[in-house]
């Protein structure tokens, strides 16, 4: 019985390490910065080593196991990394690493204790990489190696929650109006107005946020250009210190800094990436692209509850709206499992219950208001 439980645990540990290795290799292929891509390749090698250790344990128990293949969840994250870039999924993967290290903490094997330390180090590396905006700031690689700590945001989480905001808020709005009136036109007008107002507000807020960041980066690069022109010796010294923090010997760091400073055409680009952590070509991304994405995500979620009222009316339209919205809520709950690691059925069902309860409450309130007005 004990061997059976150990075997199940070893198989689960092995699959987590296989998923990690596949994800890191995908990040390495998608990463534009060669230095960071190399870090991902080293992480993949570490995960593969961990998987091999659990396979050795399984062989000792004479347990057969399938060929190495990433799970469905890992394949989805790999697709997202290829489609939207490493930064889109990095915080989610970092959270997975932290959860895996905590899972190892309760296991008795010496390998588990060693791997727990590795996973925590990996989580710190990914958190530091999540903070980088198109380039790693000075010393980040050294920090990523475990000498310091960092944290980051989550674009994947923002995308899922953007669609969720649109669906839940417009579902609640539509149900509230439907409860107060039998006028199908009023429900459609309220729903469409809510969609446009909510999506527009999200888009404007995102545009202002990204545009403000771009203006900040442009100002920082301008200041850096002035410092290069006015104090080149100080900038060369700073660059040498950055290379030292990455592990280069002092004489080699100074030699490399002098060589980089001599290249007048690219030194500003180099310092922007190394010292400020800014990619001058992207400056944090396009404000218009971010605005459009926010508008689109909110609108996609908002369409679910409105759609039935274009074709039906009365109670049937309300039931269809709740049913279609329930499907959308389940899909969102399933997407959330990419970040939480919980079961799809649990997360999807929970999301459906929370969304429909909110809709039922607003419907009830709308019904009371409609009766009192009547």
Short précis:
This protein is mainly α. The protein has 14 helices and no strands. The protein has three domains: 2-147, Ferritin, core subunit, four-helix bundle (Ferritin); 155-206 and 288-373, no CATH class; 209-274, no CATH class.
Question: Can you give a write-up of this model?
Answer:
- With 374 residues, this protein is an all-alpha fold.
- The chain has 3 domains: 146 residues, Ferritin; 138 residues, no CATH class; 66 residues, no CATH class.
- 81% of the residues lie in helices and 0% in strands.
- It contains 14 helices and no strands.
- Helix 7 packs antiparallel against helix 8, helix 9 crosses helix 10 and helix 12 packs across helix 13.
- The longest helix is centred in the middle third of the chain and has 47 residues.
- It is flat.
- The chain starts with a helix and ends with a helix.
CATH architecture of the largest domain: Up-down Bundle
Low-confidence stretches: 132-153
How many alpha or pi helices? Answer: 14
Distance between the termini: 68 Å
Rg over CA atoms: 26 Å
Oligomer designation: single chain
Domain module count: 3
Task: Round the mean pLDDT to the nearest integer and report it.
Answer: 80
CATH fold group of the largest domain: Ferritin
CATH superfamily placement of the largest domain: Ferritin, core subunit, four-helix bundle
Approximately how much helix is present in the residues? over 70%
The level 1 CATH classification of the largest domain is: Mainly Alpha
Count of distinct strands: 0
Largest sheet: none
Order of helices and strands: HHHHHHHHHHHHHH
